[in-house]
Design a protein that fits this description.
24% of the residues lie in helices and 25% in strands. By secondary structure, the protein is of the alpha/beta class. Bound molecules: iron/sulfur cluster.
Length: 337
C-alpha cells in the first residue's frame, strides 16, 4: 500500500518523512527500517496489516505503571525497526525485515480484526509494541482511530525517533507512550543504535505538550550508560523538560544479540540509578527486570506509603482509590489510576 508522509524527488527518488532518518530512497530500494520501499517513485509500506505478534499482556509489561493499572493491553507488532541497537531484545522480529516468498513476514490482519480481538479479550488499551510502531505507522493509525471509536485507548512503546509530522498525525488517537531514553549522549545513540539523541528528546517534549501521558525507560548497561553524572543529567531532563510526575523505569540489561561482551547490570547499580532519579525530583522511579526487590512499587509522593505493590507485572495490593492515596489523599498521577 502507498505509504503516508513522503515527498517525491528527481530521478524517481523519494524522501520518507516518517522518522528522523528522513531517508532518501532510490528506485526499488528500501529505507533504513527495511519495510518502506520506493516502487517507481511511489513509497510503499510493506508491513500494513502483516502482524508478526499479537496477544494480550498486562499493561505493566509495556512498562506503563500509571495507565489503567491492572488492565490488559492487546499488543501488536510487525517486523522492522529504524534503530540498529546492538542490545536489541526483540532482534528476531525487529531486525529481520527480510522477505519470505516475496512477502514481508507476518500474518494478514485488519484494524477491524485487531479491535475486535482487543474487545473480545476485554483489553482497555491496544499497545503498538515489541518492534518500533513508527515503522508500521499507517496500520497503527488506522487501528488507533478505530480503537478510539470503540472506547479503547492506544499506547505506543517507542524509541521516540518518529518525526514531528508523524506525531502530529497520530496524536489525536494516542493516549500514552513509553519512550526509551536509551542514554544521554549522542555518541551512545550513534554507536550503539545507529540513531541520534536530539530527535528523541524533541519527541518527548512534544508528546508532553500534546497531553500524551509519557513514561520513560532506560536500560542501564554496565560501562556504556551507567555513569552517575550521565544518569543524573538524564533524570534532570525528565524532571525539568517533562515534569516530575513522569515515571522513569530503569531496567536491568542482560547480555543479548550483539552485545555479549558485558555482564548483566548489578542490582545495586539500578538502585543507585533510582536514587539519582529521586534526587532529581522525580516522583516515580522504578527498577525493572529484577522482580521481587521492591523497586516496582508505586509510592505515594505525599506520604511515601506504598499505594500499589507489584511483583513483576502483577499487582499484589493497592492502597489508593479514584487516583488518590488512601492514607494521605495525595493525587497519584496517571490515567485511570
Ligand atoms: S521510517 Fe525512517 S527509517 Fe524507515 S524509510 Fe522512513 S525515514 Fe527511513
Amino acid at each position: 500500500m502507498e505509504a503516508w508522509l513522503y515527498e517525491t524527488m528527481p530521478d524517481q527518488k523519494v524522501r520518507c518523512l516518517l522518522c528522523s532518518h528522513q531517508c532518501v530512497i532510490g528506485n526499488h530500494k528500501r529505507g533504513i527500517c527495511g519495510v518502506r520501499e520506493n516502487c517507481d517513485g511511489v513509497l510503499e509500506t510493506k508491513v500494513y496489516g502483516r502482524l508478526i505478534a499479537a496477544g494480550d499482556d498486562p499493561i505493566e509489561k509495556k512498562p506503563l505503571f500509571h495507565v489503567l493499572p491492572g488492565s490488559r493491553s492487546f499488543s501488536i507488532a510487525t517486523v522492522g525497526c529504524n534503530f540498529r541497537c546492538r542490545f536489541c531484545q526483540n532482534a528476531d522480529i525487529a531486525q529481520m525485515p527480510a522477505d519470505r516468498d516475496g512477502m514481508v513476514a507476518g500474518d494478514p490482519s485488519t484494524p477491524q480484526q485487531v479491535v475486535a480481538a482487543a474487545k473480545q479479550r476485554q483489553c482497555a488499551t491496544i499497545a503498538y509494541t515489541y518492534t518500533e510502531p513508527t515503522v508500521f505507522f499507517e496500520f497503527a493509525c488506522d487501528t488507533a482511530e478505530l480503537a478510539h471509536a470503540n472506547g479503547i485507548k492506544n499506547v505506543f512503546v517507542t524509541n521516540g525517533f518518529m518525526s514531528d509530522a508523524a506525531l502530529m498525525r497520530i496524536h489525536p488517537f494516542l493516549d500514552a507512550a513509553n519512550v526509551d531514553l536509551k542514554a544521554y549522549t549522542d555518541d551512545f545513540y550513534k554507536k550503539l543504535c545507529g540513531a541520534r539523541l536530539a530527535p528523541v528528546k524533541a519527541t518527548l517534549r512534544r508528546m508532553k505538550e500534546l497531553g500524551i501521558w509519557v513514561e520513560v525507560t532506560t536500560l542501564v548497561i554496565p560501562g556504556l550508560n551507567d555513569d552517575p553524572d550521565e544518569l543524573g543529567q538524564l533524570a534532570t531532563f525528565i524532571a525539568t523538560a517533562l515534569g516530575t510526575e513522569t515515571p522513569w523505569h530503569v531496567s536491568r540489561f542482560h547480555p543479548t544479540y550483539r552485545l555479549l561482551d558485558r555482564k548483566a547490570t548489578p542490582v545495586e547499580t539500578l538502585f543507585k540509578a533510582r536514587d539519582i532519579g529521586i534526587a532529581a525530583g522525580l516522583k516515580y522511579v522504578y527498577t525493572g527486570n529484577i522482580p521481587g526487590q521492591g523497586g516496582e512499587d508505586t509510592l505515594c509522593p505525599g506520604c511515601r506509603q506504598t499505594v500499589i505493590a507489584r511483583r513483576g507485572f502483577q499487582i499484589t495490593s493497592k492502597l489508593m482509590e479514584a487516583g488518590r492515596c488512601r492514607n494521605c489523599g495525595a493525587t497519584i498521577d496517571g490515567i485511570g489510576m
